[in-house]
Amino acid sequence: DMNHVQITTKDGKSAEFYVDANTKYYKGSTSRSLSDLTPGTRVTVDTKTDGQRTLATVVRIGAAAKTKTATKSSAHQH
Length: 78
Hints:
Structural class: mainly beta
Mean pLDDT: 82
Radius of gyration: 18 Å
Shape: globular
Oligomer: single chain
Order of helices and strands: EEEEEE
Largest sheet: 4 strands, mixed
C-alpha cells in the first residue's frame, strides 16, 4: 500500500504511519515527495491520529543511515 509507511525507530522497534495528499515532505527547506523515501533513509515524522490510523502531517527527510562496515586489519609481526 503506497499510503502506508513502516519505519524502524532508533531503539529498533517497528512503527508505521499513513500518508495522504496533505502530507508535506521536506529535505532541509526543499519540498520533496513520498518517492524520496527509500529504505535506509532517516526521517523525522510529525503525526496526528485519524480514527485508528496514525497519519503523517510532515515528513522531514535526512541522510541515509550509515552502515557499519567490517574492516580487516593485517597482522603485525615482530
